[in-house]
Amino acid sequence: xxxxxxxxxxxxxxxxxxxxxxxxxxxxxxxxxxxxxxxxxxxxxxxxxxxxxxxxxxxxxxxxxxxxxxxxxxxxxxxxxxxxxxxxxxxxxxxxxxxxxxxxxxxxxxxxxxxxxxxxxxxxxxxxxxxxxxxxxxxxxxxxxxxxxxxxxxxxxxxxxxxxxxxxxxxxxxxxxxxxxxxxxxxxxxxxxxxxxxxxxxxxxxxxxxxxxxxxxxxxxxxxxxxxxxxxxxxxxxxxxxxxxxxxxxxxxxxxxxxxxxxxxxxxxxxxxxxxxxxxxxxxxxxxxxxxxxxxxxxxxxxxxxxxxxxxxxxxxxxxxxxxxxxxxxxxxxxxxxxxxxxxxxxxxxxxxxxxxxxxxxxxxxxxxxxxxxxxxxxxxxxxxxxxxxxxxxxxxxxxxxxxxxxxxxxxxxxxxxxxxxxxxxxxxxxxxxxxxxxxxxxxxxxxxxxxxxxxxxxxxxxxxxxxxxxxxxxxxxxxxxxxxxxxxxxxxxxxxxxxxxxxxxxxxxxxxxxxxxxxxxxxxxxxxxxxxxxxxxxxxxxxxxxxxxxxxxxxxxxxxxxxxxxxxxxxxxxxxxxxxxxxxxxxxxxxxxxxxxxxxxxxxxxxxxxxxxxxxxxxxxxxxxxxxxxxxxxxxxxxxxxxxxxxxxxxxxxxxxxxxxxxxxxxxxxxxxxxxxxxxxxxxxxxxxxxxxxxxxxxxxxxxxxxxxxxxxxxxxxxxx
Length: 722
Hints:
Layout: E1 8-14, H1 18-25, E2 38-47, E3 55-62, E4 67-76, E5 81-90, E6 96-109, E7 112-123, H2 131-180, E8 189-190, E9 199-200, H3 211-234, H4 246-257, H5 260-272, H6 276-285, E10 293-294, E11 309-312, E12 316-319, H7 320-325, E13 329-333, E14 352-359, E15 365-373, E16 382-383, H8 390-431, H9 437-442, H10 449-461, H11 476-488, H12 498-504, H13 519-542, H14 546-550, H15 553-563, H16 580-602, H17 605-608, H18 633-639, H19 643-656, H20 676-702
Antiparallel strand pairs: 1-7, 2-3, 3-4, 4-5, 5-6, 6-7, 8-9, 10-13, 11-12, 13-14, 14-15, 15-16
């Protein structure tokens, strides 16, 4: 075959290794396994000599009813090349007499390749004028769609399938534990090699995840897979190249499968994600509202920032000290990342980010960027909105977002929320017996926590180097565990209660901290108070006196079990509880941690992390050294996640943001068999909160602002269960 002068060619660059694509395409008779263009395909060996590889013939029927017989003429694995030709065609185009086709995959670099298709097509002698152009156009479309089908299949296989394998392996591990007898007959504590919360030893029988839970998780993964698989059939577009359509993927996923909350928030974020105001506002109502703190002293910020100023309304100049005195300067410091090393050619820093409260001419206020220092070196550059090099400034913001994800996912979401709730779940099951009112009150707030964490250990903790997060998060899995340990060593049961944690960062219930629009704080106090009333109503009904509390042997055993070093070793948990008021306080914290804490850290992952432009699991280029020039747009594109990394981030966030609406606070009936009136009173208070927050959110929408919905009772899961 001579392909030096083909009459149709098609070339495209792809964001995957050449060997990966070749492994799929070289199997000449199995294209039907990944391309919906074919309805039937069979392969037979045609001839074989001692001097050559066997030649194969495949019989193909397309979804359009066309039949072809094609012969594989050449398959060269050393150069990633295949030639094949038509032998016979039936019910096909009467215009085509014969065709010969070749494709070859070329290595671009370790993670990119290109593929070139070529065909020589001959028409029948009586073909009408213009027929060749139509046939060549159809052939080029076939090349595009076949390439897209192969790429889509590999994306799904690598990432969506990896998530499904995670679920399958977790289920098999659970089944093995149950059938072989490795499941713990009793709830016992075990520990990690690092200072982390105690875990449950094995998987108790009652902690196996229900089929409904597994089904919901699989459904979320498949939803993304279906969209990718349909893409090349429904859209006449190029296969995904080096630049992934981050915005389009998020928009399509939310609009096709999302609920109203997911659709609305995705649409709002897509409009504003790249503004400084939205970047700052997410520290108040985004995926990590626990990082911002009030600056009380100029020594908290780098020396080079202390001489910076801002202008109110464009005229009045304000110094750093002015802003501190007016409670208008706020800090986000990622110092916990400072001693970690770069991992697998993924880049991150330990930046320092300062925001200020901007006064607007209409009397409103908002947070805005004051300055960013990416690197922790004496002469590290400072980036501000006035920086002349806009792409360097944008890259600085990207490294802030990347640092935030490491801290959020490993330190807070995994360490404090998931792992931190597990010892309490173990103690409740160990020491509060069936029929005890405290068990009835608390157990719903630990439903599926042990089972979910068991799966997370299999996927993330047991073998960090094999974990799917190892090549998708900048710090890697092993350092992620260390980050979780750093945060756990800061944890104290009372010190980490909702109001105390806020107070430690300088924020108060009355809003005298100077910050408005901190909806996590505002809505959090509403829910915190409701939990307090709920706990108090229960305690004052169940225990008549303080002595009744002190005499509850099961309660005292629970306290000792959770606090004792040889058992739960839970930092700051009391060894005994002797009064009703103290028990109310403890229960309020436990219920908050079991429900709200995880919900506001987990469910905002969609859309705030699902839109890869907005939050970055990893960056693939470093901050370049200062040379007096800006960085080109192409450098920014190369720093963003490639297609595989983007699809993982989409899949992971879409999966984890799966809220079971039947297991939220508005359906909580913990005391229905003993004190149903207390449940009813709690639900009335939640309804009042919903009304207040909904009214506030309507006002925000009318003002063109994004509402905060993640602490509305209908969006708060009863437990850490996903």
